[in-house]
Structures are given as structure tokens and as C-alpha cells.
Amino acid sequence: MQEALSFLDYSILQDNLQPILIIIDADPNIKGIKSFANIAKYSYFIDGQEVLFTLGSVFQINNIHYNKNNHLWIINMILCSDYNHKLKPIFDYIKNEYSDEETGLLSFGCVLRQMGKFNEAENYYRKFLNQQQQYDYQSQAQCYHLLGNITLDKGNYDLSLEYYLKSLEIKMKKLESNARSLAYSHNNIAIIHWKKGNKKQAIESYNKALKIWIEFYGEDDLKVAMCFNNIALIIRLKYLPNEHFDIGDVYNNIGAVHRYLGHYDLALNYFNRS
User: Where are the TPR repeats (predicted)?
Assistant: First the structure.
């Protein structure tokens, strides 16, 4: 602690900033924690005792208090297991709300999006994309897909379509072994076409997603049901007025599928339309 405090002697604080000391209790014997290591021998400082934590580690704040003697705030935290912490229900919800390929290091952007901070999430994804290695095609495809989600939320359909197509291009050219992820791209491209009024292209993209999901999950899967309902909605809207009760039935069916998939915000949206 004294070594950490010594750094404050060489720090110049701005008037609107407060010094903070974070004390972390990390037990390597706890099951399910992210890896961490003592990297003191690589430290620039001869007597330094530095520990490197894996990106994505989860910490629980136990106490925050102000130290009058040292004129700083002290935060006491513990390193948590991935299986036992208060945020686990939130992370589980995120995994249900988004496809499997949208979690991991990009999950922070998903949290920002869930909070409605679309600009912050978009900036995070852009920075993440710029920092990726040239041949990390998996992360590039994921990031473009998530940028498509954000711009879709913001109503910028042209840019959203551009991102989804870029993600699809990378998947098709560089990630041939992960054919299942193509369905998510085709599905979201269909959503964009539908919102832009391109009904024929929307049905074509939904059918591409449908074919892949049936191949991987069978005909009884909820994602397959969602695809059929979306296609049915496009066709019925073509021939029936918006207020027709058959349209309401389709909205209700789509809402039910999203509810079972754990997409509660989308489910509520479609139930309200119904």
C-alpha cells in the first residue's frame, strides 16, 4: 500500500479529479475466477509488486471510504468467480439477449447498448475494431455485426446494412467453418430490408437464415419459428390493412418467440403492437 501511495507524490491532480486507491483481494484457490499473475519480474520498477488481471475479470466492491490522513478515496474489492457474483444474472441476460457470437470482450458494448448509451457503445466498438489484429477475422466480423445493431437502433438503416454486409463478407470469405453465424447476419439484413420497404429482399434474406437454422437446429427451434413468423408478417402486411386482426396475431406470435428466447424488450414491443 505504501508503494502505491508513493506514486501520488509524483502526480499532479486537476481540481476536478480525486485520487483513488483500489485494494483488491484475489484468492487463486477460488474456482471459476479469471487468471491473474504476478509480473513483478517484468516491472520497470525494481521493488515493484505488480499483478496482471485477465481482461473480463469481475470484481465486487465491498467498501468505499475516504482516508483523511492520505487525502484519498480507498476502494476495497474482491476478485469474483464467474459462477458466483451479483452481476451473473445480468451477464446471463445479455447472453440470452444477444447471439453467442456477441459476447466475450465485446460484452461491455452490449451493456452500454442495453443502457441506451448508443453513441458510447458505437465508439467502444470502433475503438475495439481499430485495435484488432489484422488476421483476427472472428473479432472483426463480430464487431461489424454489433456496429450494425447499434446503427439499427439509431435508425440509420443504410449504415446498418453496410455493417451487416461487411460482417457477412468476412464470415463467408474467412470463417467458412462457422456457417451457423451466417444466419444471424442474414436475419438482421432481412430486418433492414423490411424497415426500408424492400419486402422481396427481406424475404430472401429471411429464407437464407431459415435454411441455416433448420440445418443446425431442426424445424422445432424457436429461431426457426421466429423466421417463419417474420416472413408471414411481411406477406400479410402486403395484402391486409395494418389494423387487421391477423396482423395482430402475427405480432403476438413474434412476441411470444422473443419472450421464450429471453428477448424481453423485443417481446414487449411486439405484444404492444399486437
Answer: 141-174
Q: Which helix (H) or strand (E) element contains residue 79? A: strand 72-79
CA atoms of 134 and 253, how far apart (whole Å): 43
Domain count, the chain: 2
d(CA 161, CA 179): 20
Q: Are 86 and 103 in contact (CB under 8 A)?
A: no
Q: Are strands 51-53 and 36-38 parallel, antiparallel or unpaired?
A: antiparallel
DSSP 42: G
134 near 118, Cβ under 8 Å? no
Q: Residue 129 sits in which domain range?
A: 88-273
* Distance of alpha carbon 108 from the chain centroid: 6
**Cβ atoms within 10 Å of 261's Cβ, excluding its own:** 16
**Assign residue 262 a region: left if phi > 0, alpha if psi is -120 to 50, beta otherwise?**
left
Q: Tens of pLDDT along the chain (274 residues)?
A: 666 666 666 566 666 778 888 999 998 888 878 788 888 777 666 666 788 888 778 888 899 999 888 888 999 999 888 776 666 666 666 555 555 544 556 777 877 887 888 898 888 888 888 877 677 888 889 899 999 999 998 999 999 999 999 999 999 988 876 778 899 999 999 999 988 989 899 999 999 999 998 998 898 888 888 888 888 888 887 777 777 777 787 778 777 777 767 778 778 887 888 7
- The 8-class DSSP code of residue 274 comes to -
Cell digits of residue 223:
429461431
Residues 52 and 120 in one domain: no
